[in-house]
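Complex record, two chains
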Amino acid sequence: MRQSQLFTKTRKLAPKDEVAKNAQLLIRAGFIHKEMAGAYSYLPLGLRVLTNIENIIREEMNAIGGQEITMTALQSPALWKKSDRWRDDAIDVWFKTELKSGGELGLATTHEEPLTALMAEYISSYKDLPKYVYQFQTKFRNELRAKSGIMRTREFVMKDLYSFSRSEEEFRTFYEQCAAAYVKIFKRVGIGQMTFRTFASGGSFSKYSDEFQTLCDAGEDTVHLHRGKGIAVNKEVYTDEVLADLGIKKEELEEVKAIEVGNIFPLGTRFSDALGLTFKDDKGTEQPVVMGSYGIGPGRLMGTIVEVLSDEKGIVWPKEISPFPVHLISVSSGNADVVGEADRIYELLKENGIEALYDDRDIRAGEKFADADLIGIPTRLVVSEKTMTEGGVEVSGRQNGATAIVSENEVIERIRN
RNA sequence: CGGGGCGUAGUAUACCGGUAGUACGUCUGCUUUGGGAGCAGAUAGACCGAGUUCGAUUCUCGGCGCCCCGACCA
Protein backbone atom coordinates (compact mmCIF):
# COMPACT_ATOMS: atom_id res chain seq x y z
CA MET A 1 0.00 0.00 0.00
CA ARG A 2 1.04 3.56 -0.55
CA GLN A 3 2.30 5.08 2.66
CA SER A 4 0.80 8.41 1.67
CA GLN A 5 -2.61 6.74 2.06
CA LEU A 6 -1.91 5.27 5.47
CA PHE A 7 -3.86 7.24 8.05
CA THR A 8 -1.34 6.66 10.82
CA LYS A 9 1.83 8.67 11.25
CA THR A 10 5.01 8.06 13.11
CA ARG A 11 6.17 10.26 15.92
CA LYS A 12 9.57 11.02 17.30
CA LEU A 13 8.63 10.84 20.96
CA ALA A 14 6.57 8.34 22.87
CA PRO A 15 3.82 9.61 25.19
CA LYS A 16 5.29 10.11 28.63
CA ASP A 17 2.84 7.71 30.26
CA GLU A 18 4.24 4.78 28.34
CA VAL A 19 7.30 3.29 29.88
CA ALA A 20 7.22 -0.19 28.39
CA LYS A 21 9.42 -0.45 25.32
CA ASN A 22 6.85 -2.48 23.39
CA ALA A 23 4.15 0.18 23.77
CA GLN A 24 6.53 3.07 23.17
CA LEU A 25 7.73 1.69 19.88
CA LEU A 26 4.36 0.40 18.71
CA ILE A 27 2.72 3.75 19.44
CA ARG A 28 5.55 5.76 17.88
CA ALA A 29 5.38 3.64 14.75
CA GLY A 30 1.58 3.86 14.60
CA PHE A 31 0.78 0.18 15.18
CA ILE A 32 -1.45 0.62 18.21
CA HIS A 33 -3.44 3.26 20.03
CA LYS A 34 -4.02 3.38 23.73
CA GLU A 35 -7.68 3.81 24.63
CA MET A 36 -7.22 3.66 28.39
CA ALA A 37 -5.05 1.85 30.89
CA GLY A 38 -4.87 -1.76 29.77
CA ALA A 39 -6.79 -1.36 26.51
CA TYR A 40 -5.19 -0.84 23.13
CA SER A 41 -6.64 -0.60 19.65
CA TYR A 42 -4.78 -2.16 16.75
CA LEU A 43 -4.23 0.15 13.77
CA PRO A 44 -3.59 -0.94 10.17
CA LEU A 45 0.07 -1.90 10.57
CA GLY A 46 -0.50 -3.44 13.99
CA LEU A 47 -3.48 -5.42 12.85
CA ARG A 48 -1.46 -6.86 9.99
CA VAL A 49 1.15 -8.12 12.42
CA LEU A 50 -1.47 -9.47 14.78
CA THR A 51 -3.21 -11.23 11.91
CA ASN A 52 0.05 -12.74 10.71
CA ILE A 53 0.75 -14.06 14.19
CA GLU A 54 -2.77 -15.46 14.42
CA ASN A 55 -2.42 -17.17 11.08
CA ILE A 56 0.76 -18.92 12.13
CA ILE A 57 -0.92 -20.12 15.31
CA ARG A 58 -3.99 -21.14 13.30
CA GLU A 59 -1.90 -23.20 10.86
CA GLU A 60 -0.17 -25.03 13.67
CA MET A 61 -3.37 -25.66 15.59
CA ASN A 62 -5.07 -26.97 12.47
CA ALA A 63 -2.06 -29.20 11.83
CA ILE A 64 -2.62 -31.06 15.11
CA GLY A 65 -6.33 -31.45 14.52
CA GLY A 66 -7.70 -28.26 16.03
CA GLN A 67 -11.15 -27.13 14.91
CA GLU A 68 -11.73 -23.40 15.03
CA ILE A 69 -14.83 -21.79 16.48
CA THR A 70 -15.72 -18.45 18.02
CA MET A 71 -17.65 -18.33 21.24
CA THR A 72 -19.40 -15.35 22.74
CA ALA A 73 -17.80 -12.97 25.16
CA LEU A 74 -21.07 -12.69 27.06
CA GLN A 75 -21.39 -15.55 29.48
CA SER A 76 -24.20 -16.92 31.54
CA PRO A 77 -23.59 -17.17 35.30
CA ALA A 78 -25.45 -20.49 35.46
CA LEU A 79 -22.61 -22.47 33.94
CA TRP A 80 -20.04 -20.85 36.17
CA LYS A 81 -22.08 -21.55 39.24
CA LYS A 82 -21.97 -25.25 38.36
CA SER A 83 -18.19 -25.22 38.55
CA ASP A 84 -18.27 -22.79 41.49
CA ARG A 85 -16.25 -20.19 39.61
CA TRP A 86 -18.82 -17.40 39.49
CA ARG A 87 -17.63 -16.24 42.90
CA ASP A 88 -15.28 -13.29 42.86
CA ASP A 89 -12.92 -15.10 45.14
CA ALA A 90 -12.70 -17.97 42.65
CA ILE A 91 -11.97 -15.69 39.67
CA ASP A 92 -11.01 -12.26 40.97
CA VAL A 93 -10.72 -10.63 37.54
CA TRP A 94 -14.36 -10.98 36.55
CA PHE A 95 -16.03 -8.13 34.73
CA LYS A 96 -19.69 -8.60 35.56
CA THR A 97 -22.61 -6.69 34.20
CA GLU A 98 -26.34 -7.07 34.03
CA LEU A 99 -29.17 -7.29 31.58
CA LYS A 100 -31.78 -4.55 31.34
CA SER A 101 -34.21 -7.16 32.56
CA GLY A 102 -32.15 -7.66 35.67
CA GLY A 103 -30.20 -10.89 35.11
CA GLU A 104 -26.45 -11.01 35.61
CA LEU A 105 -23.88 -11.58 32.90
CA GLY A 106 -20.16 -12.17 32.86
CA LEU A 107 -17.67 -10.95 30.29
CA ALA A 108 -15.46 -13.83 29.27
CA THR A 109 -12.25 -14.29 31.21
CA THR A 110 -11.85 -17.80 29.81
CA HIS A 111 -14.09 -20.45 28.25
CA GLU A 112 -13.81 -23.80 30.01
CA GLU A 113 -17.37 -23.76 31.29
CA PRO A 114 -19.29 -22.69 28.18
CA LEU A 115 -17.25 -24.87 25.87
CA THR A 116 -17.56 -27.90 28.13
CA ALA A 117 -21.33 -27.38 28.18
CA LEU A 118 -21.35 -26.95 24.41
CA MET A 119 -19.34 -30.11 23.80
CA ALA A 120 -21.70 -32.07 26.05
CA GLU A 121 -24.32 -31.65 23.35
CA TYR A 122 -22.13 -33.43 20.81
CA ILE A 123 -20.06 -35.93 22.76
CA SER A 124 -21.73 -39.06 24.03
CA SER A 125 -19.65 -42.00 22.84
CA TYR A 126 -15.99 -42.98 22.92
CA LYS A 127 -16.36 -42.82 19.13
CA ASP A 128 -16.81 -39.06 19.44
CA LEU A 129 -13.40 -38.62 21.01
CA PRO A 130 -10.83 -37.21 21.04
CA LYS A 131 -11.69 -33.68 19.90
CA TYR A 132 -9.70 -30.47 19.88
CA VAL A 133 -11.45 -27.12 19.68
CA TYR A 134 -9.96 -23.65 19.65
CA GLN A 135 -10.75 -20.02 19.05
CA PHE A 136 -9.22 -16.56 18.85
CA GLN A 137 -11.48 -14.72 21.19
CA THR A 138 -11.60 -11.60 23.28
CA LYS A 139 -11.07 -12.03 26.98
CA PHE A 140 -11.85 -9.43 29.60
CA ARG A 141 -9.93 -9.47 32.83
CA ASN A 142 -10.36 -6.83 35.45
CA GLU A 143 -6.72 -6.71 36.43
CA LEU A 144 -5.96 -4.64 39.50
CA ARG A 145 -3.07 -3.19 37.65
CA ALA A 146 -2.65 -3.23 33.90
CA LYS A 147 0.97 -2.78 32.93
CA SER A 148 3.84 -3.39 30.57
CA GLY A 149 2.15 -1.96 27.49
CA ILE A 150 0.31 -4.62 25.54
CA MET A 151 1.67 -7.39 27.74
CA ARG A 152 -0.92 -7.25 30.50
CA THR A 153 -4.16 -5.67 29.42
CA ARG A 154 -7.76 -5.84 30.56
CA GLU A 155 -9.07 -6.72 27.12
CA PHE A 156 -7.14 -8.97 24.79
CA VAL A 157 -7.51 -11.70 22.25
CA MET A 158 -6.46 -15.16 23.28
CA LYS A 159 -6.07 -18.30 21.31
CA ASP A 160 -7.47 -20.89 23.63
CA LEU A 161 -7.64 -24.51 22.65
CA TYR A 162 -9.32 -27.18 24.71
CA SER A 163 -8.70 -30.89 24.32
CA PHE A 164 -11.28 -33.57 25.02
CA SER A 165 -9.86 -37.05 25.46
CA ARG A 166 -10.99 -40.51 26.52
CA SER A 167 -8.17 -41.15 28.93
CA GLU A 168 -5.19 -39.69 30.69
CA GLU A 169 -2.91 -41.44 28.18
CA GLU A 170 -4.77 -40.06 25.20
CA PHE A 171 -4.70 -36.63 26.76
CA ARG A 172 -0.96 -36.90 27.37
CA THR A 173 -0.27 -37.71 23.75
CA PHE A 174 -2.06 -34.62 22.57
CA TYR A 175 -0.51 -32.51 25.30
CA GLU A 176 2.91 -33.31 23.93
CA GLN A 177 1.76 -32.74 20.35
CA CYS A 178 0.53 -29.32 21.32
CA ALA A 179 3.77 -28.56 23.13
CA ALA A 180 5.61 -29.43 19.92
CA ALA A 181 3.27 -27.20 17.93
CA TYR A 182 3.98 -24.35 20.34
CA VAL A 183 7.70 -24.80 19.79
CA LYS A 184 7.09 -24.46 16.05
CA ILE A 185 4.96 -21.37 16.53
CA PHE A 186 7.53 -19.55 18.64
CA LYS A 187 10.22 -20.47 16.16
CA ARG A 188 8.17 -19.16 13.24
CA VAL A 189 7.44 -15.85 14.90
CA GLY A 190 11.15 -15.35 15.47
CA ILE A 191 11.70 -15.97 19.17
CA GLY A 192 12.43 -19.70 19.12
CA GLN A 193 16.00 -19.49 20.38
CA MET A 194 15.03 -17.54 23.48
CA THR A 195 11.80 -19.34 24.35
CA PHE A 196 11.86 -22.31 26.69
CA ARG A 197 9.38 -24.84 27.90
CA THR A 198 9.08 -24.18 31.60
CA PHE A 199 7.78 -26.41 34.33
CA ALA A 200 5.16 -24.55 36.31
CA SER A 201 2.40 -24.85 38.83
CA GLY A 202 -0.92 -26.23 37.74
CA GLY A 203 -2.83 -23.67 39.74
CA SER A 204 -6.08 -24.98 41.10
CA PHE A 205 -6.52 -27.58 38.37
CA SER A 206 -3.61 -29.93 38.60
CA LYS A 207 -0.21 -30.57 40.05
CA TYR A 208 1.73 -29.13 37.13
CA SER A 209 1.51 -27.24 33.89
CA ASP A 210 3.94 -26.11 31.25
CA GLU A 211 4.62 -22.54 30.29
CA PHE A 212 6.55 -21.20 27.37
CA GLN A 213 8.79 -18.46 28.64
CA THR A 214 10.71 -16.01 26.48
CA LEU A 215 13.83 -14.63 28.09
CA CYS A 216 13.49 -10.90 28.55
CA ASP A 217 14.48 -8.50 31.28
CA ALA A 218 11.10 -6.80 30.97
CA GLY A 219 9.35 -10.05 31.85
CA GLU A 220 7.14 -10.50 34.90
CA ASP A 221 8.26 -14.03 35.61
CA THR A 222 11.42 -15.42 37.06
CA VAL A 223 12.56 -18.80 35.84
CA HIS A 224 15.52 -21.06 36.45
CA LEU A 225 16.93 -21.96 33.09
CA HIS A 226 18.91 -25.05 32.11
CA ARG A 227 20.53 -23.92 28.87
CA GLY A 228 22.03 -27.30 28.15
CA LYS A 229 18.69 -29.07 28.18
CA GLY A 230 16.72 -26.08 26.92
CA ILE A 231 14.19 -26.29 29.71
CA ALA A 232 13.36 -24.13 32.68
CA VAL A 233 11.58 -24.21 36.00
CA ASN A 234 9.34 -21.40 37.13
CA LYS A 235 10.41 -19.85 40.41
CA GLU A 236 6.94 -20.73 41.78
CA VAL A 237 7.76 -24.41 41.74
CA TYR A 238 11.52 -24.26 42.16
CA THR A 239 11.84 -27.02 44.74
CA ASP A 240 14.24 -29.89 45.30
CA GLU A 241 11.44 -32.33 44.53
CA VAL A 242 10.70 -30.77 41.14
CA LEU A 243 14.38 -30.59 40.24
CA ALA A 244 14.76 -34.25 41.12
CA ASP A 245 11.72 -35.16 39.01
CA LEU A 246 13.20 -33.30 36.07
CA GLY A 247 16.65 -34.73 36.65
CA ILE A 248 18.45 -31.41 36.87
CA LYS A 249 20.74 -29.91 39.47
CA LYS A 250 20.60 -26.45 41.00
CA GLU A 251 24.17 -25.65 39.96
CA GLU A 252 23.25 -26.09 36.30
CA LEU A 253 20.55 -23.44 36.40
CA GLU A 254 20.64 -19.70 35.94
CA GLU A 255 17.96 -17.35 37.23
CA VAL A 256 16.51 -15.14 34.49
CA LYS A 257 13.50 -12.92 33.86
CA ALA A 258 11.05 -14.08 31.23
CA ILE A 259 7.68 -13.40 29.61
CA GLU A 260 5.05 -16.11 29.58
CA VAL A 261 4.05 -16.32 25.92
CA GLY A 262 2.06 -19.51 26.14
CA ASN A 263 0.92 -22.17 28.52
CA ILE A 264 -0.60 -25.58 28.41
CA PHE A 265 -2.15 -27.41 31.26
CA PRO A 266 -4.11 -30.47 32.22
CA LEU A 267 -7.63 -29.88 33.44
CA GLY A 268 -8.33 -33.50 34.29
CA THR A 269 -12.05 -33.98 34.86
CA ARG A 270 -12.55 -30.78 36.85
CA PHE A 271 -14.94 -29.28 34.30
CA SER A 272 -16.35 -32.42 32.74
CA ASP A 273 -17.43 -33.51 36.23
CA ALA A 274 -18.92 -30.13 37.09
CA LEU A 275 -20.81 -29.74 33.83
CA GLY A 276 -21.64 -33.33 33.07
CA LEU A 277 -19.44 -33.95 30.03
CA THR A 278 -19.26 -37.73 29.84
CA PHE A 279 -19.04 -40.46 27.24
CA LYS A 280 -19.89 -44.17 27.13
CA ASP A 281 -16.81 -46.34 26.71
CA ASP A 282 -16.76 -49.51 24.60
CA LYS A 283 -18.22 -51.46 27.50
CA GLY A 284 -21.10 -49.06 27.92
CA THR A 285 -19.72 -47.51 31.09
CA GLU A 286 -20.12 -43.77 31.53
CA GLN A 287 -16.81 -41.93 31.92
CA PRO A 288 -15.84 -38.30 32.38
CA VAL A 289 -13.98 -36.66 29.51
CA VAL A 290 -10.36 -35.80 30.27
CA MET A 291 -9.61 -32.21 29.34
CA GLY A 292 -6.67 -29.91 28.77
CA SER A 293 -6.31 -26.26 27.93
CA TYR A 294 -3.75 -24.47 25.81
CA GLY A 295 -3.37 -20.71 25.54
CA ILE A 296 -1.39 -18.16 23.59
CA GLY A 297 -2.10 -14.43 23.58
CA PRO A 298 -1.26 -13.08 20.11
CA GLY A 299 -1.09 -9.51 21.41
CA ARG A 300 1.26 -10.37 24.21
CA LEU A 301 3.31 -12.37 21.75
CA MET A 302 3.51 -9.32 19.50
CA GLY A 303 4.64 -7.20 22.45
CA THR A 304 7.22 -9.78 23.41
CA ILE A 305 8.65 -9.84 19.91
CA VAL A 306 9.02 -6.06 20.01
CA GLU A 307 10.66 -6.20 23.44
CA VAL A 308 13.11 -8.84 22.38
CA LEU A 309 13.96 -7.96 18.79
CA SER A 310 13.89 -4.17 18.56
CA ASP A 311 16.98 -1.98 18.56
CA GLU A 312 17.69 1.69 19.27
CA LYS A 313 16.26 2.73 15.91
CA GLY A 314 12.98 0.91 16.22
CA ILE A 315 11.26 -2.38 15.68
CA VAL A 316 12.77 -5.32 13.78
CA TRP A 317 10.03 -7.64 12.59
CA PRO A 318 10.78 -11.22 11.71
CA LYS A 319 9.88 -11.92 8.10
CA GLU A 320 6.88 -14.14 8.79
CA ILE A 321 4.98 -11.60 10.83
CA SER A 322 6.12 -8.31 9.31
CA PRO A 323 3.19 -6.08 8.30
CA PHE A 324 4.60 -6.08 4.78
CA PRO A 325 7.35 -8.24 3.31
CA VAL A 326 9.11 -5.24 1.84
CA HIS A 327 9.32 -1.48 2.31
CA LEU A 328 9.80 0.34 -0.99
CA ILE A 329 11.18 3.84 -0.68
CA SER A 330 11.49 6.46 -3.36
CA VAL A 331 14.24 9.02 -2.90
CA SER A 332 13.14 11.37 -5.61
CA SER A 333 14.10 14.88 -4.52
CA GLY A 334 11.31 16.08 -6.73
CA ASN A 335 12.65 14.18 -9.74
CA ALA A 336 9.63 12.92 -11.70
CA ASP A 337 11.68 10.20 -13.38
CA VAL A 338 12.53 8.68 -10.05
CA VAL A 339 8.88 8.84 -8.96
CA GLY A 340 7.89 7.13 -12.20
CA GLU A 341 10.50 4.43 -11.72
CA ALA A 342 9.47 3.80 -8.12
CA ASP A 343 5.83 3.59 -9.20
CA ARG A 344 6.85 1.06 -11.84
CA ILE A 345 8.75 -1.08 -9.32
CA TYR A 346 5.74 -0.93 -6.98
CA GLU A 347 3.49 -2.24 -9.75
CA LEU A 348 6.07 -4.86 -10.70
CA LEU A 349 6.13 -6.16 -7.13
CA LYS A 350 2.36 -6.24 -7.08
CA GLU A 351 2.24 -8.21 -10.34
CA ASN A 352 4.57 -10.71 -8.74
CA GLY A 353 2.33 -11.10 -5.73
CA ILE A 354 4.51 -9.04 -3.41
CA GLU A 355 2.63 -6.46 -1.36
CA ALA A 356 4.97 -3.63 -0.48
CA LEU A 357 4.56 -0.70 1.82
CA TYR A 358 5.50 2.01 -0.66
CA ASP A 359 6.79 5.24 0.84
CA ASP A 360 5.68 7.56 -1.93
CA ARG A 361 5.45 10.58 0.34
CA ASP A 362 6.95 13.84 -0.84
CA ILE A 363 9.36 14.23 2.06
CA ARG A 364 13.10 14.08 2.50
CA ALA A 365 15.02 10.84 2.38
CA GLY A 366 16.23 11.05 5.94
CA GLU A 367 12.74 11.11 7.30
CA LYS A 368 11.75 8.12 5.18
CA PHE A 369 14.71 6.10 6.36
CA ALA A 370 14.10 7.00 9.99
CA ASP A 371 10.45 5.98 9.64
CA ALA A 372 11.40 2.76 7.90
CA ASP A 373 13.78 1.89 10.72
CA LEU A 374 11.07 2.58 13.27
CA ILE A 375 8.39 0.58 11.45
CA GLY A 376 10.79 -2.32 11.10
CA ILE A 377 9.94 -4.10 7.86
CA PRO A 378 12.81 -6.55 7.33
CA THR A 379 13.62 -5.78 3.70
CA ARG A 380 13.99 -2.30 2.24
CA LEU A 381 14.12 -1.33 -1.41
CA VAL A 382 15.28 2.12 -2.45
CA VAL A 383 14.75 3.73 -5.83
CA SER A 384 16.71 6.93 -6.43
CA GLU A 385 18.72 8.76 -9.08
CA LYS A 386 21.69 6.74 -7.94
CA THR A 387 19.99 3.37 -8.32
CA MET A 388 18.60 4.36 -11.72
CA THR A 389 22.09 5.29 -12.91
CA GLU A 390 23.37 1.95 -11.70
CA GLY A 391 20.52 0.11 -13.37
CA GLY A 392 18.96 -1.65 -10.41
CA VAL A 393 17.28 -1.29 -7.07
CA GLU A 394 18.98 -0.93 -3.73
CA VAL A 395 18.17 -3.71 -1.29
CA SER A 396 19.00 -3.60 2.37
CA GLY A 397 18.11 -5.55 5.48
CA ARG A 398 16.65 -3.87 8.55
CA GLN A 399 18.63 -6.08 10.85
CA ASN A 400 22.16 -5.94 9.46
CA GLY A 401 21.88 -2.86 7.28
CA ALA A 402 23.95 -4.34 4.45
CA THR A 403 22.99 -2.83 1.11
CA ALA A 404 23.45 -3.93 -2.48
CA ILE A 405 22.27 -2.78 -5.88
CA VAL A 406 20.55 -5.66 -7.62
CA SER A 407 18.45 -6.15 -10.74
CA GLU A 408 14.66 -6.16 -10.64
CA ASN A 409 14.42 -9.87 -11.26
CA GLU A 410 16.82 -10.63 -8.50
CA VAL A 411 14.90 -8.37 -6.14
CA ILE A 412 11.79 -10.42 -6.70
CA GLU A 413 13.68 -13.67 -6.23
CA ARG A 414 15.22 -12.45 -3.01
CA ILE A 415 11.95 -11.31 -1.50
CA ARG A 416 10.25 -14.55 -2.34
CA ASN A 417 12.92 -16.58 -0.59
C1' C B 1 -5.50 -3.68 47.26
C1' G B 2 -0.81 -1.19 50.09
C1' G B 3 3.04 2.45 48.84
C1' G B 4 5.04 6.36 45.62
C1' G B 5 4.75 9.83 41.56
C1' C B 6 2.31 12.72 37.79
C1' G B 7 -1.94 15.58 35.05
C1' U B 8 0.11 22.62 30.99
C1' A B 9 -1.20 23.04 22.77
C1' G B 10 -1.62 16.89 18.74
C1' U B 11 3.44 15.25 21.25
C1' A B 12 7.50 16.44 24.72
C1' U B 13 8.42 20.16 28.17
C1' A B 14 9.30 25.47 30.95
C1' C B 15 7.87 29.38 34.11
C1' C B 16 4.47 31.76 37.29
C1' G B 17 -0.68 33.87 43.05
C1' G B 18 -1.72 38.92 38.22
C1' U B 19 -4.63 34.26 31.97
C1' A B 20 1.44 30.92 29.84
C1' G B 21 7.21 30.28 26.91
C1' U B 22 10.16 26.71 23.97
C1' A B 23 10.81 22.41 20.67
C1' C B 24 8.58 18.87 17.48
C1' G B 25 3.95 18.47 14.73
C1' U B 26 0.32 21.00 11.58
C1' C B 27 -0.60 25.22 7.82
C1' U B 28 1.66 29.36 4.16
C1' G B 29 5.83 31.05 1.38
C1' C B 30 10.93 30.81 -0.30
C1' U B 31 15.42 27.97 -0.28
C1' U B 32 16.87 22.91 0.23
C1' U B 33 16.77 17.47 -1.01
C1' G B 34 20.54 9.58 0.44
C1' G B 35 19.64 9.64 7.35
C1' G B 36 14.13 13.09 11.10
C1' A B 37 16.76 20.45 6.63
C1' G B 38 17.00 26.28 6.93
C1' C B 39 14.61 31.05 7.17
C1' A B 40 10.04 33.90 7.76
C1' G B 41 5.02 33.85 9.24
C1' A B 42 0.69 31.26 11.24
C1' U B 43 -2.08 27.58 14.25
C1' A B 44 -2.99 25.50 18.96
C1' G B 45 -2.82 24.64 25.71
C1' A B 46 -3.56 24.80 32.21
C1' C B 47 -8.16 17.22 33.62
C1' C B 48 -13.01 18.29 36.43
C1' G B 49 -15.34 20.43 40.81
C1' A B 50 -15.28 23.04 45.38
C1' G B 51 -12.52 26.20 48.71
C1' U B 52 -8.86 30.24 50.07
C1' U B 53 -7.94 35.02 47.54
C1' C B 54 -9.29 41.41 44.91
C1' G B 55 -7.40 37.68 41.48
C1' A B 56 -5.96 30.39 41.07
C1' U B 57 -2.94 27.16 35.76
C1' U B 58 -0.11 27.98 40.38
C1' C B 59 -2.17 27.11 47.18
C1' U B 60 -5.90 23.53 49.86
C1' C B 61 -9.56 19.62 49.59
C1' G B 62 -12.37 16.16 46.72
C1' G B 63 -13.15 13.59 42.16
C1' C B 64 -11.40 11.56 37.65
C1' G B 65 -7.30 9.84 34.84
C1' C B 66 -2.26 8.01 34.01
C1' C B 67 2.54 5.74 35.42
C1' C B 68 5.89 3.03 38.69
C1' C B 69 7.08 -0.55 42.99
C1' G B 70 4.76 -4.42 45.70
C1' A B 71 0.70 -7.91 46.23
C1' C B 72 -2.34 -10.56 42.72
C1' C B 73 -2.29 -13.08 37.90
C1' A B 74 -8.15 -18.61 36.37
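Note: The two ends of chain A are 21 Å apart (CA to CA).
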